[in-house]
Amino acid sequence: MGLNDTDVKTRILLSAKRLFAKQGYEGTSVRQICEEANANIALVSYHFGGKEKVFEAIFEQFYPGSEEAFNQYEDELKNPVEGLTLIVREIVAFTINDKELSDIIQQELTLQSPRMETVQASLSPVWFKVKELLERGKEEGVFHFDSLTVAFLTVMGVTLSHKRFHSVNVWLKNHDGFIPDSYPDQAARFVLQGLGVKLNS
Q: Is 51 in the same domain as 84?
């Protein structure tokens, strides 16, 4: 594949990601994607095989939570506290740094769309690892909780709650209107304290 082919494929994926996040999958046409990408409309079929395959390619290209991605953190993930800290930080950082893909995920899960299988296939390695770390941490006596379901939902809630920031800011009266850079670390500490881990101040 030539350099120009790679460039146009990337432009198509980035344009599709922007448009899917802004107006939804169903509300976005192939023509709009190609206009945004400054690409010939025939190239979507040529490079991807249609809009649905573009959607799948976005996750393959930009979602960081694949099984292979865990290999570089093998040592940290052996320890339930270090592993859960890492994953919470990474989830929060991802949802802040790639708001477009995070918004797409949220939309698709909320709608229970026909693309759920693609979304869940990407998310599953991360959330199965969270479940595994919670179970292992409880077995080792470092996490303290009564219900795995409640613990899991709490971890998920803390890591994703900032997605609602602009909706709830009317009650917070946060006139700065931003989430602090330290939020990933604060979220991880909050989760661990909720699980009964004694942390150094």
A: no
